[in-house]
Design a protein that fits this description.
- The structure is a single chain.
- It contains 8 helices and no strands.
- The chain is mainly alpha-helical.
- It starts with a helix and ends in a 6-residue tail after the last helix.
- The longest helix is centred in the first third of the chain and has 29 residues.
- It is elongated.
- The protein is about 75% helix and about 0% strand.
Length: about 170
């Protein structure tokens, strides 16, 4: 429980700091402060939250990798995480390349606002997917059709039967 709690608290720190910067990029929060000042002051919290969140998330995965691997919601969460990472890289290497031109603007250009809105949507999706993982709505015990195929439930059952014949039932 301590590991899960730490993961959630550092997720709040990470996502909260990203939300703060994204709201500035949208022109909603602190419109009279340069984006660089807001982002640079929040960055240590974002990085710290991310590192601890990554460590605790990895530890949580390795606590029960077999079940997470066969959880379609976990896979959806990872897709959203990868999409959010791609958005971050595009923002930092393309959109933010000319930050000097719009750093003091109360409302940054449309492509900056689009990246910020995309960031918020993707991180909300990651959090919702992570929260949905706590429930067994799509577990192999209850899955059928597409979800059972996506979770590779037949392979899971076969693996469990090979490990311990009584577990697969």
């Amino acid at each position: 429980m301590l590991l899960e709690g730490t993961h959630v608290v550092t997720l709040m720190l990470f996502a909260g700091s990203i939300l703060f910067v994204d709201l500035r990029l949208l022109g909603v929060l602190l419109p009279n402060r340069p984006v660089s000042k807001v982002a640079d002051s929040i960055l240590p919290y974002t990085v710290g939250g991310f590192l601890v969140m990554l460590l605790t998330g990895t530890a949580l995965f390795f606590a029960n990798p077999f079940e997470y691997y066969h959880n379609v919601i976990f896979r959806v969460k990872l897709v959203f995480v990868v999409a959010a990472a791609i958005n971050i890289f595009i923002f930092h290497f393309r959109v933010q390349a000319n930050r000097g031109a719009w750093d003091d603007a109360q409302r940054p250009p449309a492509k900056v606002r689009f990246a910020a809105g995309t960031s918020i949507a993707l991180w909300v999706a990651v959090i919702v997917a992570g929260r949905c993982m706590a429930y067994d709505w799509f577990s192999c015990d209850m899955a059928s059709g597409f979800v059972a195929a996506a979770e590779q439930c037949q392979e899971r059952t076969a693996t469990l039967a090979a490990i311990e014949p009584g577990l697969a039932q």
